[in-house]
Amino acid sequence: MTCEDLRDSYELYALGVLEGEEKREVEAHLARNCAACEKYLKDALGVNALMLSQAQEVVPPSRLRRRVLSSVGQQRAGWEWVAALAAACSLIVALWLGVEKRITDRELANARATLQQTVGERDRLEQAVTFLNQPETRQVNFGQGQPAPPRGNFFLNPRMGVLLIASNLPALPAGKTYEMWVIPKGGAPQPAGLFQSGPQGTAMHILTGAVDSNVTLAVTVEPESGSPAPTSNVLFAAGF
Amino acid sequence: MLARLIPVSLALALLQVSLRFKDDGDLARRLKARDGGAMRELYDRYGRLVYSLILRMVRNSAAAEDLVQETFLRVWNRIQAFDQERGALGPWVVTVARNRAIDYLRSADGKMSAAALELDQLEHPGRFCDFEDRALSLDRARRIKAAFEKLTPHQKTVVELAYYEGLSQTEMAERMQQPLGTVKTWVRSALKALREQLTEAAAV
User: Fold this and answer.
1) Which residues in chain A have their CB less than 8 angstroms from residue B9's CB?
2) Domains and CATH numbers, chain A
């Protein structure tokens, strides 16, 4: 075919839809660097571009512009700042919430501990009042007449146990505690519980369980974990 | 079928696009230099045209957005082979866009795609240079539009099928259930009419 014969094939060739013998002819002409065919191809590319530019105009969504620019790393810096700022704000809020939660948790734990302590005190006082109200409870005091004595009372109920109420207790050294003893007549002292004094040197201690009615009660200062037998002098004692 | 194709959207009241900006060469140089903002400018010049063309072809806005992104990414990745002194950026961008949409349509039809490689070669940026200054003018775009509107319905259909659906003449004959020779006559006469309108314009 001559160049002129192929004149009507170049648009289709440039569109990639030419086929068969016509396509092979066009390729053969172009491979020879035929000037006429080069010009025809150029004209065809122009016609095609003009035809393709005539689609009904539609405005693309604005997100498409951002998407295209992001894909080649040319999105506006402003958007990156917004994203970074949003991330920073989120982090600050998250940290603040975390701190707030920790503070709240701690306050809650303190409140719970205080409540448990208060409930424990109340139960002990109720127990003491019940103890005192029993007709078989007997009382013996101690420390009367001493210069700076621990003073107080032992209450013994053979069925319920022993209640100790004391004041003027000396401050304990670190690592020490008070320990009460039940000493049967002619027997060795039996451990009867550990207790601490309050800030004013007062203390209340209860030993629950049956106790012989003819015993001596004593208190010594012992190591914090308690002792199976007294290791120091008796601080105060009283016998029933 | 024909009713869907014939009244296609070439009925533009006014051509609002231009295929050649006078400083396209400078823009191409900045794209090659990866100049900040160059891609933004390219999109602002051709984004609407590319989206309109692709949407016209694939008729699915989500797919069209994907293909627009693909188009600009391809231009970005191949700009180094573009000759900013002699090249015509608009025709190249439009051709890349059209070929992305054709690839999409063909793959959707399951016709993958020895033709994809061929399209790839045909849209090489080196081909889109040394156009005459007038070749892509607004006046010529108006003329080709007027020439298209004068075509017969059959001629319009075959032109549509070639440009917007990427069908070969054999495929057009099957689609239209017409003899191949008849289809070739329609194609030939239609393209000749379009081309001659431009030739007449050049001769004026």
Assistant:
1) 55-56
2) 4-52 (no CATH), 138-239 (2.60.40)
